[in-house]
Amino acid sequence: FSFKERMNNLFISKSRGYILLLRIENVDTLITTYGEAVYNKILIRLSEKFKNIKNEVKNVYLYDTNVLALILNECVRNDVFYFVEEINRLIKIYEGKHKIDSGIFVTAFAFTYPLMFDSCFDLFREMNNSLNKQSPRFDNSLIFESENIVRFMSREDYILELLDEAFVNHAFELRIHPLIKNSNKLIEGGEILLRLKDPLTNNYIGAY
């Protein structure tokens, strides 16, 4: 099935999920530096890697000359975060392995379906409008069109941004974890743990 045929079938079956569009922002630089053949090879190789992230990705489609499309059927928002973080990690590995010194800069657009769309063609119209009007606020960003959410694709960059905001707004928790000596079971010290909550998932990220 083509991308449009599969989406049409999903609308008919009243399935729910997300479409993830990956727009390569520096396509002109990549073609000028490495040639069109190498650029096409990059798209093919990355598509193959993205398909192996999880079973939910049945195929990766070429939506436009610089846009790849993934259908994340029956996935929720947290699944999108996971996919995008993995996609960013795989891109960085590919850059290093194949010496893509100019980098591969991507903006990820997440669209939920069916939402308020009567047909997949209404969704395609919205997707095209977003691709034409939206400019990335920073390199390798994730944009949820229907939820007004923008964050880094990279988990590391996202956590660093949360830490910066938490220190400015004092929106973090400090916990003292006691260190107990095995021989006498007495407290001999403690560790100070920083607990940081992800506002998008409402989960604690971890201790640092």
Give a brief description.
The protein has 6 helices and 9 strands. The chain is an alpha+beta fold. Strands 2-3-1-4-5-6 form a 6-stranded mixed beta sheet, sandwiched between helices. A 3-stranded antiparallel beta sheet has the order 7-8-9, with helices on one face.
List the helices and strands and how they pair.
Layout: H1 3-12, E1 17-24, H2 27-34, H3 36-51, E2 60-64, E3 67-73, H4 77-97, E4 106-113, H5 120-133, E5 141-144, E6 149-152, H6 155-169, E7 173-180, E8 187-198, E9 203-207
Parallel strand pairs: 4-5
Antiparallel strand pairs: 1-3, 1-4, 2-3, 5-6, 7-8, 8-9
Helix pairs in contact: 2-3
What's the β-strand tally? 9
Strand portion: 25-35%
Rg from C-alpha positions?
Answer: 21 Å
Q: Note the main sheet.
A: 6 strands, mixed
Shape: globular
Structural class: alpha+beta
Helix share bin: 40-55%
Mean pLDDT: 87
Q: How are the strands of the largest sheet arranged?
A: 2-3-1-4-5-6
Structure annotation, total helices? 6
The run of helices and strands is HEHHEEHEHEEHEEE
Oligomer: single chain
Unreliable stretches (pLDDT < 50, length at least 5) are: none
Distance, first to last CA: 46 Å
